[in-house]
Specification:
- InterPro entries: Nict_dMeBzImd_PRibTrfase, Nict_dMeBzImd_PRibTrfase_bact, Nict_dMeBzImd_PRibTrfase_N, Nict_dMeBzImd_PRibTrfase_sf.
- Its EC number is 2.4.2.21.
- It catalyses: 5,6-dimethylbenzimidazole + nicotinate beta-D-ribonucleotide = alpha-ribazole 5'-phosphate + nicotinate + H(+).
- With 350 residues, the chain is α/β, with parallel strands linked by helices.
- It has one domain: Rossmann fold (3-Layer(aba) Sandwich).
- A 6-stranded parallel β-sheet has the order 3-2-1-4-5-6, with helices on both faces.
- Helix 10 links the parallel strand 5 and strand 6.
- The termini are far apart.
Length: 350
């Protein structure tokens, strides 16, 4: 049987470049390890980019959007129409990620994979895989063909970004109801009850959170017998935009572009990507730990070391964008600090 593209080999990090970067870190005018996570980031980026002095000046941000049939179960504090309205806000420059992209000088692409109502917005790439997903509490969220097309949409977005010279890729998401789908996926992946992971999403109260947990538990009971492999879980419990994120992360690993992962939903997609192809894991950097209760558990499963802890729960790729300056500074410190020899500074005594 022919392998799916996402099962094919990922690019291996460049171990020679890693060793050169590690050696340079030991020569810089500071105690070894004194810049902590920033040193590890610079070395990791060097290995991923295959050069002793890495750079993340050229950043591409891809926002994937889609509606969710599970909204019919009353799991969101916002109406479904907000998904489409926010697409217009993204391209008009008024959303948080739009502001952040401008400040970073990052390229921003918005991809509509399927809103409940058809849209034609200038500046948005409309793919329309369906009028949103089906209600995952009543049946599979999408067909196998829709799932494959959503994964492909993420890969295509990364390929466009790479063609434009991206040194770092950030995926973001928009879709009312998508914390429900992401939590259901996380519960299956981590084999834990919904109550351990479910959170307020867009702002549910306590009763709303309890109802959301009950909807997720019912969905898991419905679908678990039919889930044999990770692709089945994505098809039955996921969302178009979540699968596009999975596809983008897997494409990053295959094409050799580091990915900076955003919040809870993006981290669930990252975990799904690792379950589909474990070799993609080195290509995933993690920006922050957000306020959704399940995010910490997902990061632990990924053995991730997030950069920021700011209590974020916005999505859109915003937390990842906020972490870009740290990555840039890590690269600049690595490249521009003087060595002990250059600065005529005495090294530590043996």
């Amino acid at each position: 049987m022919t392998q799916a593209w996402w099962q094919q080999a990922c690019r291996a990090p460049d171990e020679a470049a890693r060793a050169q970067a590690e050696a340079r870190q030991l020569q810089l005018t500071k105690p070894a390890g004194s810049l902590g996570q920033l040193e590890r980031l610079a070395v990791q980026l060097a290995a991923l980019q295959g050069r002793q002095r890495p750079s993340v000046e050229r950043v591409a941000i891809g926002i994937f959007a889609g509606d969710h049939g599970v909204v019919a179960e009353g799991v969101s504090a916002f109406p479904q129409a907000v998904t489409g309205q926010m697409l217009g806000n993204f391209v008009a420059g008024g959303a948080a990620i739009s502001v952040l992209a401008r400040q970073l000088g990052a390229a921003l692409e918005v991809v509509d994979l399927g809103t409940a109502q058809p849209l034609q917005l200038p500046g948005v790439r409309h793919l329309r895989l369906g009028a949103g997903t089906a209600n995952l509490a009543r049946g599979p969220a999408m067909s196998a063909e829709q799932a494959r097309l959503a994964l492909q949409a993420g890969r295509d977005a990364l390929l466009r970004a790479q063609q434009d010279g991206a040194e770092l890729f950030i995926g973001g998401e928009m879709g009312i109801g998508n914390t429900t789908a992401a939590t259901a996926l996380a519960c299956w992946q981590l084999d834990c009850p919904a109550a351990a992971l479910v959170g307020p999403g867009t702002g549910l109260d306590g009763a709303g959170v309890a109802h959301k947990a009950a909807v997720i538990e019912a969905a898991l009971a419905l679908h678990r017998p039919a889930i044999v492999e990770p692709f089945d879980a994505l098809q039955r419990l996921g969302g178009f935009e979540i699968l596009a994120l999975v596809g983008a992360y897997l494409a990053c690993a295959r094409q050799g572009v580091p990915a900076l992962v955003d919040g809870f939903i993006c981290s669930v997609a990252a975990l799904a990507a690792v379950r589909l192809n474990p070799d993609c894991r080195p290509w995933l950097l993690f920006a922050h730990q957000g306020a959704e209760p399940g995010h910490r558990r997902v990061l632990q499963a990924l053995e991730a070391e997030p950069l920021l802890h700011l209590g974020l729960r916005l999505g859109e790729g915003s937390g990842a964008a906020l972490a870009v300056p740290l990555l840039r500074l890590a690269c600049q410190l690595h490249s521009e600090m003087a060595t002990f020899a250059e600065a005529a500074v005495a090294e530590r005594a043996p």
